[in-house]
Amino acid sequence: MTNFSIGTLARQSGIKVTTIRYYEETGLMPPAERAENHRRIYGRQDVERLSFIRHARELGFDMEAIREMLALSAEPDRPCAEVDAIARKHLTAVEERIERLERLKAELVLMLGGSGHGKVGECGILRGLADSSHDHGRLHDP
Q: Model pTM?
């Protein structure tokens, strides 16, 4: 097994040293082995685990979902249904976020349609933002 430093792990995984330490503190990464000089040492499996974490974070999975999937991946003979359920739940959240963004886009397009000419006192965007009849709160993530 090849052992390397946290700096080398950071370069190979594309994850900052401080983030690696944070992942260790929160349990996403197991505690690093220590060399005789007490420095952390890592191996190929750590690079693979960090690559998994990085990709899952890029896809928007939260830390708890990643933790669950990592735990499930340690039991390769288990059915995949639990992992599917985690991914399905995340997909639903992504779809809901897209719907909110589409509503936000539509409202911005409407406001911009009545703007761009005249004076600030007649600005459609400012009137639209001041219009309390719209439920603007529904456009944002909870």
A: 0.76
